[in-house]
């Protein structure tokens, strides 16, 4: 049988010259794409995964041959736009084939493909996979128009607005999650490296340990493998800690600038899950699994702004814990905290975390060096590392939406020269302050009433998120009406089915 040779320049992927035709890459990105292509060939990679991050913050991907992936950096890659119609249960939550995809977006009628454009700056080689590369992509329609539901594009626009007033964004990541062994009958905490855990009941009866060296050493083989894998993809952990719950870990990372901070969260979560599953383990970033003695996991977002004039931390002050710009940023976070909650905590399950005296916030307040406040200022007069910590988020949050929501709120505070209310001096759980939404339902309503994020993010995205989350809430309500949680358990089986493996 003969081989059909395609015409010169035809690769069979995307649209020929899509990236150049629509001006999607500048000179630096074009040069980076050439460098990535050379590296793929030099390393003899057999597969390159092209990843797009969906509305839930979950990576969806295709694995391509090396030469096809190289062509996609010029031509783009056709990818099913149906992913934007999927909820957290992977159900289509809008009427199939409705006009505008059910979202009022003409280009989404009929479940068409979108075009993914790889960002060569995100290229990595995955050490746990055989001769495999990895890149994050941006999503566009076939016309070259940005896909309005793409969180990465949204964050890029938020960063551009921030740069327009003279600042760059810097984020420190601190994320909690669970590592578990999969038992034939049930899930048990991973507590002995690569070997199966003892019977679950004996593990739980050990009681709680926090920052225990001995407990941390009991999972050393697993953590060392994760550490080395993350280091190999350019994400060396700054710290690895054991948290309150059995099998609960917290990893933190040194500050990362701009879009790369959100990209790092995607890579971190996916890498940890992949490395664990290759060892017969399951890593979950679900906030509060329905397992005995388990505590909620959070995502604390540390953030500051860097002056584009002098390259220094714009939140540092010689005589205060926080500069005027930093205080205005905090004021913006406080003012927009209620509608921001949906971006920070997008699941039914995440609201089980907002409890008094849980080290998670339950109301809208701020303080200096107080872990119970929603916004915690870390710094002191003369401290060049002064920054703020938003303690609202759950580990499952879409990092692009979560960070973009913070940037937009803080920038609004700076533009309007807002002053925050007085900081909490002692117990934040008794402060006279508005209570955070107590459920996803309340958070959706708060965003629906809000006008700020509609202006900042556009009606299309906000209406889409509200529609998707209300469909999720309807399924949840129906499920718990039929199968309520057991007495004394606030997390339903529906939440475990919906979020536990998905995140």
Overall residue-averaged pLDDT value: 91
Runs in which pLDDT lies below 50 for 5 or more consecutive residues are: 1-8, 191-207
Structural class: alpha+beta
- Count of individual helical segments: 15
Question: What's the CATH class of the largest domain, please?
Answer: Alpha Beta
What CATH architecture of the largest domain would you give?
Answer: 2-Layer Sandwich
Q: What is the CATH superfamily classification of the largest domain?
A: Glutamine synthetase/guanido kinase, catalytic domain
The general outline is globular
* Beta-strand residue percentage: 15-25%
Q: Find the CATH topology of the largest domain.
A: Creatine Kinase, Chain A, domain 2
Task: Give an account of the 3D structure.
Strand 1 and strand 2 form a beta hairpin. The model is unreliable at 1-8 and 191-207 (pLDDT under 50). This protein has 15 helices and 15 strands. It is 34% helix and 19% strand. Strands 7, 8, 9, 10, 11, 12, 13, 14 and 15 form a 9-stranded mixed beta sheet that branches. It has 2 domains: 18-147, Roll (Ubiquitin-like (UB roll)); 162-499, Glutamine synthetase/guanido kinase, catalytic domain (Creatine Kinase, Chain A, domain 2).
